[in-house]
Amino acid sequence: MANHRGLISNVNLRSNENNLAHHTREIDRERLIVRRGQPFSITLQCSDSLPPKHHLELVLHLGKRDEVVIKVQRKREAGNKWWFNQQGAQDEILLTLHSPADAIIGHYHLAVLIMSPDGRILQEADKIGFHLLFNPWCKDDVVYLPDQNLLQEYIMNEDGVIYMGTSDYISGIHWAYGQFEDYVMDICFEVLDNSNDALRNSKMDIENRFDPVYVGRRITAMVNANDDRGVVAGKWERPYSDGVAPQRWNGSVPILRQWSKDGGRAVKYGQCWVFAGVACTVLRCLGIPTRLISNFASAHDADGNLSIDILVNERLEIVNRQESTWNFHCWVESWMRREDLPKGNDGWQVLDPTPQEPSDGEYCCGPCPVTAIKEGNLGVKYDAPFIFAEVNADIVYWMVRPGGQQQRIKVDESSVGMNISTKSVYDDQREDVTLQYKYPEGSAKEREVYKKAGRQVTEPESRSAESGQLQLSIKHAKAVFGTDFDVFVEVKNEGSKDANAQLTILALAVTYTSLSQGVCQWQTTSVTVPAHQTHKQVMRLHYDDYVKCVSEHHLIRVKAFIEAPGEIEPIMAMADIPLSTPELAVQVYGKAVVNEQMTAHISFTNPLPVPLKGGVFTVEGAGLLAASEINVNGDISPGQKVSVKQSFSPMRTGVRKLLVDFNSDRLKHVKGDATVVVGRR
């Protein structure tokens, strides 16, 4: 053996060519990162030619303790197996490795063995490390997506838009997914390695990583930190003083890096869009086409009866918190064939990393086929009943009287699951995907699916003769945070006689998940509405009153309730009023060129009637710069304009987004952005 030691003198991974062919050069140019189901080649330099009848054997190792070992076949054989072929002679051998389209994703170590004719190992070269990812470009991979435009958006785009607000006032924030930023891929595998399944049985976990259903489910469990070493701790109301308020984050990378740096300690804090943003980063990075979804008026059904029961007292305050509707809720969809399910369940799958209800004993949710939700097929894995309720539940409002008896005051069959939205593939516009989740609201087919989903639709109880003569509506102009504004409640009498009734109006500050932060104003008045006429009641909301209790979501909920005991059934109306906040002005001057410095100019004017203290700008952008903070010196007076500069050198070409967040004591989470098109010199 001694005379053959050191036959292999050098290994060239050909990372530049391989990574380019495998769409991974954005991740790394030095390390070898390839996708399954697609061949890649490496070169062995030999100090001498191989002796006659000697041959090479290749063995793959996976896991920190080589839990999984795979022998690479010398030629293509039946069944999905790794195989290789070799070309060349004398001092250079070109090895081409072929991975199956259902290979395990992960960090591989390849051992190259020189074998003698009698089967002895003459030399084992140093193990060669490389990463293998899912391959949506390969038609035999279950995550295959045949459209180049969709691949560009759902795998390669490092920036996105997350839609928020209310179904009437939809706003979007830019989010930096940054799936190709330095070391993000390594952190994604670290996330998988820290799951409960991996810690319980590492070998079984690794063997299951060929399957995007398994991987997707592990990611939804690990993005939240509820019952494992997960990435983000959730918190739905202030204070956030021992962490970062959910609204301050502009992207996933600082969160993932902090989690890794802190040895797997949960990062504080996130809410649904943060969980979804981080999950989208991890899934895109691993090679599973993924997009972020916002569902407006999203129901949280705790008991699985497809109905949300909301109990209010006579002051219109909610008295039970088990079930609720959120103004919006974010999850992700990932694209895959579902070979574990009957035909008709391929395509987009809901994965929801926000911890709401346990699934199989842990806080994870999905993957569940969007088609199963649309058709009401709730027996399909995973978590279909819960997701169906999020977009389809009916809301039933009950008045709890002082004696404890409950009176049903409103059944709402049509306001859950509105304007289900995602970013367009072609630009930053909103694409409405509601009809992929449900048939048109109020249509016969929609009610038919609702019945099929396991519950007879509640028929509204018959109303008295005078019922329906009064109609209640709430109107308001666009409300700006920092100003006083009016809310108009209109009572319309369509009956043939005058109506005498009690009108109660309540304005309260709420979070986007309907948690009350305090009452801003409350009034009860006796009104007389003549037949065929309309009564208008005005409630003025003053900044000094609502600023004391308004949440970081800048949301006021107004409820109006009218009843005339014994004459008409009580009626309730509700409106959510988002208080708009200013945007930052962000401008970038000059031509953007890789590795050449440029400057962003950021300005902001204080719109409030009070000074702002502790102002800080956070600037970041995938491919542009890591998150950086700029502190403002001194207070910012009412109406004062503040301007700051941030220099940076773009790291990668392409269309990039520079994202800025402004934070202060009284005005938080003001956002701004600029598009930067980066080229080469």
What labels would you give this structure?
elongated; 681 residues; six-stranded antiparallel beta sheet; Immunoglobulin-like; Coagulation Factor XIII, Chain A, domain 2; alpha+beta; 4 domains; single chain; 13 helices
CATH topology of the largest domain: Coagulation Factor XIII, Chain A, domain 2
Average the pLDDT over all residues and give the rounded result: 91
**CATH architecture designation of the largest domain:** Alpha-Beta Complex
Say how many strands there are: 39
Gyration radius, rounded: 30 Å
The number of distinct structural domains comes to 4
- CATH superfamily of the largest domain, by name, is Transglutaminase-like
- Which structural category fits the helices and strands? alpha+beta
Unreliable stretches covering 5 or more consecutive residues: 456-467
Mind sketching the topology for me?
Blueprint: E1 8-12, H1 15-21, E2 33-35, E3 40-46, E4 55-62, E5 68-72, E6 83-87, E7 92-98, E8 106-115, E9 121-124, E10 128-133, H2 148-156, E11 159-165, E12 170-176, H3 184-193, H4 196-200, H5 202-207, H6 212-223, E13 232-234, H7 253-261, E14 267-270, H8 272-286, E15 290-300, E16 307-312, E17 324-336, E18 347-351, E19 368-369, H9 370-375, H10 384-392, E20 394-400, E21 406-412, E22 418-423, E23 430-432, H11 434-437, H12 444-452, E24 470-476, E25 479-480, E26 485-493, E27 499-510, E28 516-529, E29 534-541, H13 543-546, E30 555-564, E31 568-580, E32 585-589, E33 592-593, E34 598-605, E35 616-621, E36 625-631, E37 641-648, E38 654-663, E39 670-679
Parallel strand pairs: 2-10, 13-14, 16-20, 25-31, 33-39
Antiparallel strand pairs: 1-3, 3-7, 4-5, 4-8, 6-7, 8-9, 8-10, 11-12, 15-17, 15-22, 17-18, 18-19, 20-21, 22-23, 24-26, 26-29, 27-28, 27-30, 30-31, 32-34, 34-37, 35-36, 35-38, 38-39
Helix pairs in contact: 3-7, 3-8, 6-8
